[in-house]
Write the structure tokens for this entry.
Amino acid sequence: QRAQLTKQLHELGCKTTQLPPSSTETGMAHSLVHGIQQSLVDVDAWMIALADMPAIRPDSIHALLQALQAGADIAVLVYQGRRGHPVGFSRLYLTELLRLEGDQGARSLLSRFPVTEVVVDDPGILLDIDTTLDLDALKSILN
């Protein structure tokens, strides 16, 4: 399944990377830092997306990209007053991103720095699939 997903992402123009099997570090931050380190050349911003959130609409991702291109240094999608994913960070926050540790990802930056909220009509930005109940909720959104 990993090979198929990697192929599909490459066909869409995405670059992928995998943590080394010998890595002893754990937590979301470790994965995030690894990804950023692999993409330091010629990158102005990063969009942090979670793989277990398959219902995010392409137009929501495009709206986040537009906010970053318009100069937002941190941009987050919002649906009905709730912040969701993905989240975008400009190069201004590179040092902060590379210092992340633990399992909180970049959430701490959202509470410490100014954030541009991008309102979208997309409940998928809030729905991650961790349980069968989550999967049922996804099915109801897609139908």
